[in-house]
Amino acid sequence: MQLTGGMKFGWLVIGALMGIPGIVLAWLVNADKAPQVKSDALKFAIIGFVIWIVLGILLSLAITGMVTAVVAGAMGTVGGGYHYGSSW
Fold first, then answer.
1. Alpha-carbon span 44 to 37, nearest angstrom
2. pLDDT score, position 80
3. Disulfide: which of 15, 48, 51, 85 matches 22 by Cβ 3.0-4.6 Å?
4. Positions of the chain with pLDDT lower than 70, given as ranges
5. End-to-end CA distance of the chain, in Å?
6. Where does residue 47 fall: left (phi above 0), alpha (psi -120 to 50 degrees), or beta otherwise?
7. Cβ contacts of residue 16 below 8 Å, gap of 6+?
8. What is residue 70's predicted lDDT score, i.e. its pLDDT?
9. 42 and 30 in contact (C-beta within 8 Å)?
10. In the prediction, which pLDDT does 75 show?
11. Dist CA 53 CA 68 (whole Å)
């Protein structure tokens, strides 16, 4: 028995949405199955978890960059600062 494409995608989604409990679930559910099935289920659950972590880090960096740009822009409009376009 081998995992189909849909089953692999399912374990990927479970790993992404549930995280570490999803990986444990993949291991427990497939403990009595063929070694290849168990290995594939664990592999795709771990891949889903890693994808979720990477997307979270990228989203955090994007939001942090946007907030930093907004704060820097707001601080630039406060009087008394150095303005490149202002006259002497």
1. 11
2. 56
3. 15
4. 76-88
5. 79
6. alpha
7. 22, 48, 49, 51, 52
8. 87
9. yes
10. 74
11. 22
